[in-house]
Records
---
Amino acid sequence: MNPRPPRVALALALVLLLGLLLSPSYLEACGVERWSVKTGTDADVGKINVNSSTANTIATMRSWTTPSPIPANNRVSPFETTVWVLSATLTQYKLEDDQDYHLILKDAGGLTMIAEIPDPACVGTGSPFAAGVSRARSAFDARFNATTSFQTANIPVQIKGVGMFDFQHGQTGVAPNGIELHAVLDIVFNPTTDFSIGVSPTSLSTVRGNASTATVSTSVSGGFNSSVALSASGLPSGASASFSPTSIGAPGSGSSTITLSSGTAAAGTYSITITGTGGGKTHSVVLSWTVTSGTVQQLILNPGFESGGTSWTATAGVITNSTSEAAHGGTWKAWLDGYGAAHTDTLFQQVTIPSTITTATLTFWLHIDTAETTTTTAFDTLKVQITNSSGTVLQTLATYSNLNHNSGFSQKSFNLSSFKGQTIRVLFTGIEGSIQQTSFVVDDFALNVQ
């Protein structure tokens, strides 16, 4: 038998090669657009700490402005340099041509955005995303079988991934600004929904007649999405407690300041139970509160401004008995800003805190009235600061704004014990923008030391 002619063999080889090229396994390919950013081989990937994550919401992420232009191999900070965690519902999923799993996430209000789990084989060598992508892909494969057609899931998930603005080309479920979680680094199905509560510090000491503050914090897990109302119990007779704010808004992660006013309470140590309630869950934390007796010295002179500007240094017109804004007590008060025009007012009193004291508590009453309607932007601010006698700022105690407006007065309290033995100024600086008015009214001060 004669051997096969060389041309016939070559033709057969070409046919076999063409069949290989056209086979489905060969046609599979990874993505192209911003692929280095999507898989963590871009020039800015070093800016991301994959071991740290920040909780967010679909609504917030959809509100971000799309960068113009969208960089091909760089990231827009902080949106694309942060690992975000979302609690949402996975509604649908499919396998894309670039081998990504395309996930559609929806929040309780019906807003959607996309998350993508790349094929681990498409994640470049050395990418810090590699381990997370493999973990997320395995978790997904253990529960679902993604195909090239959309399938319905409708299951609660907690999903972790890096933010990424994608180019718009009619993707199903896409956010209006093109933001996605890409790549997904972890996914938990049917996560436990709950919140936790804590307080810092865990113990307080207050001279009878004074007030002290602590910070109450809550955090959420799983798909928990509810406001958390706060309350306190275990208070001794003659004492009171207040929260600012009184509840922590949905999804339930945030902080509030509890003010414990000792009033006429008897000296002693009390266990104050702080309780958070929301989303069908209730959790508590205990704060140890010691009320002490002793001689209290009040250092602020003319604390209610009833002697006009005596002992205070203020911008013209700040200390007033005008009836346009009510005083907390009496008829005089300090009224900063409220012009509806660009304006800065200041108010301060200089005091010396004895070096022999053990406690020093500053309190005052604050009312904020504003014509601003925004719920997101602080156009007008009031800073409360401690300076030395030369005016150098030693500490900023608080910054209030039009966002903190209230219908009446609320009492504020700060621990100034760290300034014992020093001559300091208690300084208020009100800065108002040029459009709508915001009035900051302060009254009835006390700096009680013991």
Note: Residues 1-5, 8-27 have pLDDT under 50 and may be disordered.
---
Amino acid sequence: MQGKVTAGEATEAELARVTDLIRRMDEDWRRIVTYDVLQRYPRKCEDDEFFELLIDYTNRATFNLQDKSNRAEKTVRNRLLNQLKDLKKRDRYIDSMPAIIEIENKLNDMEERENADKVVNYLKSEVLNGEKITPHFLSLAKTLNNDSLEKIKKDDGSPFGNKKEREAHIVNFYKNLYSLPNRMPADFTNCVSEFLGPEISGHPVVTGSKLDENEKI
């Protein structure tokens, strides 16, 4: 039904049905047990296993919904194309011109919507693929990594007493790694100019590359 709604072919009854399903879905979601309540029950699996399955099932459900919607919209498109062909095959189809124009407008809308989705996905891929993958990183990605966290040791090389201790060490390591340095200034005004120096900052290439206020906005 969502595919037919997207294609602009849903009846009033189907539109009402979709609205009702969305309302019921919101009501069902509000009846779901809260996270705080779930935390009171004993766990039957590890956190990583739970979230791995959660992601897997969510992906499957999402792809399934998208596939059904796309197939429904494709069915509508094929039906409209067949109707258009039948109308244009007639010897005197001038009487069918209003129906032909209506069908062509629907097909144009569907084509524009599909192209708009492709543009959005293209822009997303540009952002995601903005940095080229180096051959070294690619070889690492293709290599099956069987390393275990148990290989991580304390700073003195001794093993950790338990899993929680090792996890705390990993968290602190990355926390310190990505923390702001103590010498970082509080005010960054003119920091680029000071870094480049007066000679480079005053060069026409640099001054001509600066944005004016409208460009900044």
Note: The first helix runs from residue 2 to 6.
---
Amino acid sequence: MAPMSARADRASRVAGVFIAIVGSLGPAAVAAQPTAAGGLSLAATGRFVGLALACVHREYPNKLAHSLDSDIDVQPPRELTPAFYGCYDWHSAVHAHWMLARAARLYPTEAFAAPARTALDESLTPAHIAGEVAYVGGPGRASFERPYGLAWLLMLAAELRVATDADSRRLAANLAPLEALAAQHIRSWLPVLHYPTRSGEHGQTAFAFGLIWEWASVAGDRDMQLRLAAKAREFYLSDRNCPLTYEPSGEDFLSPCLGEADFMRRVMRAEDFGRWLKVFLPDIPRWRSSRDWLQPAVITDRADPRLAHLDGLNLSRAWMLEGIAEGLPAGDGRITALRRAAEAHRAQALPAISGEHYTGGHWLGSFALFLTSGADRRIGP
């Protein structure tokens, strides 16, 4: 195969034209644009989509989570995983495709929708998905991208499932074999998972459980939801006094405490969740927000791929705080503080998302759209 496939070359040209259009908009033009989800201008939304378009078919640089059993396993990323070889690593490629699908569905008449659909068509062909199934289902890969990447794959499937246009239905059907394999890997893992992972990075179980729950809601997979609810009781129901003041660790992009609470609000009734949260995070202020409660993370070097994680932390904290507030009973005194903290994180994070450094640009746009479109609380219209 040539170093750059024809599909990647075409998609790169489309992305380049679109990014040039968006990039030509100055601050005044951006401010004048109509508003998208979350109060964000459509120009800013388009800028985030442009980051995904710029990377979904960009093969290098590339970080492989790939084990070698023989010489035949030494292949370029586009041969190993022909649908999701761009955006530096597999999981980033997957959630970049989720972003394209969501943006095209929510804003079908905007300038970025057509190139997003083109890129999806380039990637999600039956042949490419068959290659992904062969790779992900290969010997020794039961834990490949588990749980983070598999959870995002299911979110991509959910996004295509809820779309009503014929192209999305076709792409959903193309993706279905990989969707089924991802769900199977998660389903076989849950019974043998004896401990949760409470990290602030890819292994965190609570965050992945939340995404998988959203997919199961769309897919009508009651069995998966029952399995996740059982893990919620087993892993998290008795937790007390989560040490939020210990966060963040140096390279987090997820909050262990907020991620757990954001998952638990999905599986509990509002009144029960409110009581559980009082014990789990007892220091959330009531009725007013304390200025020193949960300040946004400080990012010192966005060119460093690990330190750039903290921009993602501010984005994910914002949507988790909003989700937790939404999970409480109406009139709960903590809602104001949670929403003010979410807004502080949002205000700090969104202006910083750019393509200046590929280390962050290849994935942070997805997190930005996840936040601004309320994706964890509103997959559907």
Note: The chain is about 55% helix and 0% strand.
